[in-house]
Write a structure and sequence with these properties.
The protein is an alpha/beta fold. The protein has two domains: about 70 residues, Serine Threonine Protein Phosphatase 5, Tetratricopeptide repeat, CATH 1.25.40; about 230 residues, Vaccinia Virus protein VP39 (Rossmann fold, 3-Layer(aba) Sandwich), CATH 3.40.50. Helices cover about 45% and strands about 10% of the residues. It is built from 15 helices and seven strands. Helix 3 packs antiparallel against helix 4. The relative contact order is 0.13.
Length: about 325
């Protein structure tokens, strides 16, 4: 009987998102996690953070603690800034500019293009920078690379809708605007739990996002990775010509994709079948080999880029 019950639970996977929340217990575990991370007990903090989430799935602070314990202390914006310094791009493209924090990392002297249906900032941008207030699908359907960027994109950051079919379309379109030396970075590729990685979570998350994001910092924003992890699986399996490395930074990792091929039609021709097939892949399957699929690389970003033979572009001193 016990064996059959264990097998049934294993098939169900993580059922904690469907259990009634226990806020008091969740808060107690969260406080325990905060105490442990303050004194450097990372394994203890990770355990307590996961117990907090199991008790109350709304505790995003516990997910940030998990990010610290599994990915380290560095914040993703700092890593993007380092990539700008290393790559010295002359043409930068960002899908999903949001508040403009990451878009503002682009040097004022280069051509920088942002795309976001509801950009929240920045209020002032340099003359060579432009944000298009439209969806990425609409943007790529109505604009040409040379019209917008004046040539192949050197560096692109994809941080749009956190559903893998959207991110896949963004990658397909960005690759068409690329060169073999283009570097593409994907955000939110390291999921922590079923709630924050759930496709259905985004309805509530996006509503809360629009209500609160204008007055909160990145640290307190809605914690929703969605299923962008599925895109990394697709690239790993169906595009072995790409070099894929994930830099472990908070809150949810940055996946660097290199050796792009603007002539490749593997993803665009197989788009419908890929979406249908990978929609059925469960998070537990990904978690088994998460670090290998993501290609976790803890080296400094300049080594990650140089090891792939990517040349930097003549920049500004």
């Amino acid at each position: 009987m016990q064996t059959r019950l264990s097998a049934h639970i294993a098939r169900l996977g993580d059922v904690s998102p469907y259990l009634p929340p226990r806020p008091a217990r969740g808060r107690s575990w969260l406080e325990d996690a905060q105490r442990k991370i303050a004194r450097g007990d990372l394994p203890g903090a990770a355990y307590a953070a996961r117990r907090a989430i199991a008790a109350d799935a709304s505790l995003d602070d516990a997910r940030h603690i998990l990010g610290h314990t599994e990915l380290g202390p560095e914040w993703y914006v700092d890593t993007l800034a380092a990539l700008h310094r290393v790559l010295r791009p002359q043409r930068y493209l960002e899908i999903g500019t949001n508040t403009g924090t990451t878009f503002a990392l682009a040097d004022p002297s280069i051509r920088a293009v942002g795309v976001d249906p509801e950009p929240l900032g920045p209020a002032h941008i340099p003359d060579g920078h432009h944000i298009y207030p439209e969806t990425s699908d609409g943007f790529f359907a109505t604009h040409s690379r040379d019209e917008v960027c004046g040539g192949p994109v050197d560096f692109a950051f994809i941080d749009g809708m956190h559903l893998f079919e959207y991110a896949l379309r963004d990658f397909i379109n960005v690759e068409r605007w690329s060169s073999p030396d283009t570097v593409v970075v994907l955000h939110d590729t390291y999921p922590f739990d079923h709630v924050s990685a759930n496709r259905r979570t985004h309805h509530a998350a996006v509503n809360r996002y629009h209500e609160t994001f204008r007055r909160v910092t990145n640290q307190n924003s809605v914690f929703w990775t969605g299923d962008v992890w599925r895109l990394v699986m697709i690239l790993r399996v169906h595009r072995p010509d790409l070099v894929i490395r994930t830099i472990p930074v908070r809150p949810t990792g940055l996946t660097v994709v290199m050796h792009l091929d603007p002539q490749s039609r593997v993803l665009s021709d197989g788009y419908r079948s890929l979406v249908a097939a990978y929609r059925r892949v469960r998070l537990q399957t990904f978690d088994i080999n998460k670090r290998d699929i993501l290609g976790i690389d803890q080296r400094p970003v300049e080594q990650v880029v140089s090891s792939a033979g990517i040349s930097t572009h003549p920049g500004h001193d």
